[in-house]
Specification:
The complex is a heterodimer of chains A (148) and B (416). Helices cover 41% and strands 20% of the residues of chain A. Chain A is an alpha+beta fold and 148 residues long. Chain A has a single domain, classed as Sufe protein. Chain: A (Alpha-Beta Complex). In chain A, strands 3-2-1-4 form a 4-stranded mixed β-sheet, with helices on one face. In chain A, helix 4 packs antiparallel against helix 5. Chain B is of the alpha/beta class and 416 residues long. Chain B folds into 2 domains: 134 residues, Aspartate Aminotransferase, domain 1, CATH 3.90.1150.10; 255 residues, 3-Layer(aba) Sandwich (Aspartate Aminotransferase, domain 2), CATH 3.40.640. Chain B is built from 14 helices and 17 strands. The chains are: A alpha+beta (148), B alpha/beta (416). The interface between A and B is medium-sized, with 23 and 22 residues.
Chain lengths: 148, 416
C-alpha cells in the first residue's frame, strides 16, 4: 500500500480528478495528437506560441490517472516557458523516468511527483505520452504521435 | 474427479489438488501469493505439459515426416498422435480434418486466405458479430478489401448477446462465410453457435467458429455443432504458446488452395510445377512446432482427465460468486451481463481508469487484464476505452475471489 501511495501521490490524484488547462483552444497556433495504442490513452495538446514562448497551453484527452495528471501538470510546468526550455524539461523528465541519472540543472518542481513511476516500467509511457505529444506540437508536425 | 461418481453426489473439483500440478502458481508477487486471474490472456501450464515438452527435447528431438532414423520416427508418431488427440477432443470424425497452426489467429487467416478469398466476388459479404476479437475482424477486412467485398457486422445488445433476429436478417444471398466467436474474450458471452450454424447452413453459408475462449471452458463437439471450421489456441487451454489447431470439414479442406508454400506440404516439386500434399499436410508448410503439438496434446489429455463438465461447473461457481462479490464494491459496473457466460468478469469502476486498477491489484499480487482486450469495437459499443477483466480457470479458488475484492477495496482507498 505504501508503494501505491508513492505512485499515486496526492498531487497526482488531485490533478487526475481536476485536470488543469483541460479545454479546447480555439486560437491554438499548433496542435498535436498523441495515442498509446497499447492501452488506448489519447491526448490532444493545444499550443499558442508567440515569439518562441508558450503563451497558452491546453489539452483534451482520456487516460489513466498517471496520464491525465502528467498532462495536467505538464501544462502548468511549461506555460510561459520558451520552446527550448520546454524541450529541455521534456528531456530531463524523460531521463528521470527512464532511470538515466542526468538531472543536473533541471528544475523539476511539481514534476518530481512522477519519480515513483520509474519503478513501474509499463506505466512510463502513461506519464510521457503528453510530453511526446507536446514535443510533436512544438515541432509542428501535425502528424499523430504514438508511444510505440 | 471421478466421472463415474455416484449420481447422488455432485462431484466437485478439488482446486487445491489441481494447483499442485501448476508450478507457476506457487510464487509470491510483490510480497503476496500470486492470484492469477488473467487466464483469458493465457493460462499457466501443468507439469504434464511441461514434462511432455521436456521429454520430447530430452529423448525424441528430431524432425517429422522425413528421415528413416529412429528419433525421426518417434517424433513423427508423437506429432501425428497429437493430431489424433486434438481430433478426439473436438469430436471430429477424422484426424485429417485437424490442421496444426500457430494460433487461433493463424487458423482464421488460413481460412480467410485459402477458402474465402478465392470465392469472394465484388459485392459479396462476410458476416461477423460486434463482439469479435481483432483476430476475427482484421483477416476478413484484408480479404474484403482485396476482393471488393463487404464486412457486415451483427449488432449485440446491452447485455452482450448477439441480436439473433438481426443475424438472420443480415445473412444474405451475398454472405460467403459467417465468422463468430464461441465465447467472447471481452464479455464472457457464450454464443448459441449451434443454432447460428444451423441458420447459416439453411441458407447455404459456411461458418467458422473462433473457439479460443471456449475450448478451455466447454466441451466442444464439432460434429454436433456442424461447423465448417473451428479454431483455437493451445496456450489458453494450459498448453504451450505458438501452437493451435484448425478443424475443418474434410470436403472443405479438399477444395482449399494451399496457404503457405514450402517443405512438408508437397508431394513433388519441379521447376515446372508442384504437386501438393493432401490435407492436412497441404496446410502445414515448413517444419512444424513439434514440441508445441505434443504439449497441446498433453494439455488436452490433462483437461480430459479431469473432465470439462467438472471444470465448467467449478468455473461457473467462481464466476457467479465473483460477480456478486465484485458488485458489492462501490462504483463497479459490469460490462457483459449475458445470461450464458463463461470465465470472464469484465468491469469498470467509477472515477478510476482500468490501468490504475491493474497496477494497484498487481501490487497485491493479483494479475488481471486492464485494457481493450483486442476488442476495441466491443469497448466502443459500451462507451468505455478499457475494462478490467478477471478471468477464471480450473485452478482458481474462492479465496482468490476474496483477494480480488480486497484489492478492489484498496483501489477505492487510494482513489477515494
Amino acid at each position: 500500500m505504501s508503494d501505491m501511495r508513492e505512485l499515486y501521490q496526492e498531487v497526482i490524484l488531485d490533478h487526475n480528478k481536476r485536470p488543469r488547462n483541460c479545454y479546447v483552444m480555439d486560437c491554438a497556433t499548433r496542435t498535436a495528437d498523441g495515442h498509446n495504442p497499447l492501452c488506448g490513452d489519447v491526448v490532444k495538446v493545444y499550443l499558442r506560441i508567440e515569439d518562441g514562448v508558450i503563451e497558452e497551453i491546453s489539452f483534451q484527452g482520456e487516460g489513466c490517472a498517471i496520464c491525465t495528471a502528467s498532462t495536467s501538470i505538464m501544462t502548468e510546468s511549461v506555460k510561459g516557458k520558451r520552446v527550448e526550455e520546454a524541450k529541455e524539461l521534456f528531456e530531463g523528465f524523460h531521463e528521470m523516468l527512464t532511470g538515466v541519472a542526468a538531472e543536473q540543472g533541471v528544475e523539476f518542481g511539481k514534476l518530481k511527483v512522477f519519480e515513483g513511476v520509474r519503478e513501474y516500467p509499463v506505466r512510463v509511457k502513461c506519464a510521457t505520452l503528453a510530453w511526446h505529444t507536446l514535443n510533436a506540437a512544438m515541432d509542428n508536425g501535425d502528424k499523430p504521435v504514438t508511444t510505440q | 474427479m471421478n466421472p463415474t461418481a455416484s449420481a447422488t453426489v455432485t462431484p466437485a473439483l478439488d482446486a487445491e489438488l489441481i494447483r499442485a500440478d501448476f508450478p507457476a502458481l506457487h510464487q509470491e508477487v510483490n510480497g503476496h501469493p500470486l492470484v492469477y486471474l488473467d487466464n483469458a490472456a493465457t493460462t499457466q501450464k501443468p507439469l504434464a505439459v511441461i514434462d511432455a515438452v521436456r521429454s520430447f527435447y530430452e529423448n525424441d528431438c528430431s524432425n517429422v515426416h522425413r528421415g528413416v532414423h529412429r528419433l525421426s520416427q518417434r517424433a513423427t508418431v508423437a506429432f501425428e498422435q497429437a493430431r489424433t488427440t486434438v481430433k478426439n477432443h473436438l469430436g471430429a470424425a477424422d484426424s485429417r480434418e485437424i490442421v496444426f497452426t500457430r494460433s487461433t489467429t493463424e487458423g482464421i487467416n488460413l481460412v480467410a486466405s485459402s477458402f474465402v478469398r478465392p470465392r469472394l466476388e465484388p459485392g459479396d459479404e462476410v458476416l461477423i458479430s460486434a463482439m469479435e476479437h481483432h483476430s476475427n475482424i482484421v483477416p476478413w477486412q484484408l480479404v474484403c478489401e482485396e476482393r471488393g467485398a463487404r464486412l457486415v457486422v451483427v449488432p449485440i445488445d446491452d447485455d452482450g448477446d448477439i441480436i439473433l433476429s438481426e443475424y438472420e436478417r443480415l445473412l444474405s444471398e451475398r454472405t460467403r462465410i459467417v465468422g463468430v466467436v464461441h465465447v467472447s474474450n471481452a464479455l464472457g458471452t457464450v454464443n448459441p453457435v449451434r443454432e447460428m450454424i444451423a441458420t447459416a447452413h439453411a441458407k447455404g453459408v459456411p461458418v467458422l467458429i473462433d473457439g479460443a475462449q471456449a475450448v478451455p471452458h466447454l466441451a466442444v463437439d464439432v460434429c454436433d455443432l456442424d461447423c465448417d471450421f473451428y479454431v483455437f489456441s493451445a496456450h489458453k487451454v494450459y498448453g504451450p504458446t505458438g501452437i493451435g489447431a484448425l478443424y475443418a470439414k474434410r470436403d472443405r479442406l479438399l477444395e482449399m488452395a494451399p496457404y503457405q508454400g514450402g517443405g512438408d506440404m508437397i508431394l513433388s516439386v519441379t521447376f515446372a510445377g508442384t504437386t501438393y500434399a493432401e490435407p492436412p499436410h497441404r496446410f502445414e508448410a515448413g517444419t512444424p512446432n513439434i514440441e508445441g503439438a505434443i504439449g497441446l496434446a498433453a494439455a488436452l489429455d490433462y483437461v480430459d482427465g479431469i473432465g470439462l463438465d467438472l471444470i465448467a461447473a467449478h468455473e461457473s461457481r467462481l464466476l457467479t460468486d465473483a460477480t456478486a462479490a465484485v458488485l458489492a464494491v462501490p462504483g463497479i459496473r459490469l460490462v457483459g451481463t449475458a445470461q450464458r457466460k463463461a470465465s470472464v468478469l469484465s468491469f469498470v469502476m467509477d472515477g478510476v481508469h482500468p490501468h490504475d486498477i491493474g497496477t494497484i491489484l498487481d501490487s497485491e499480487g493479483i494479475a488481471v487484464r486492464a485494457g481493450h482486450h483486442c476488442a476495441q469495437p466491443v469497448m466502443a459499443r459500451y462507451g468505455v476505452s478499457a475494462t478490467v477483466r478477471a478471468s477464471f480457470a480450473l485452478y482458481n479458488t474462492a479465496e482468490e475471489i476474496d483477494a480480488l475484492v480486497a484489492g478492489l477495496q484498496k483501489v477505492r482507498e487510494v482513489f477515494g
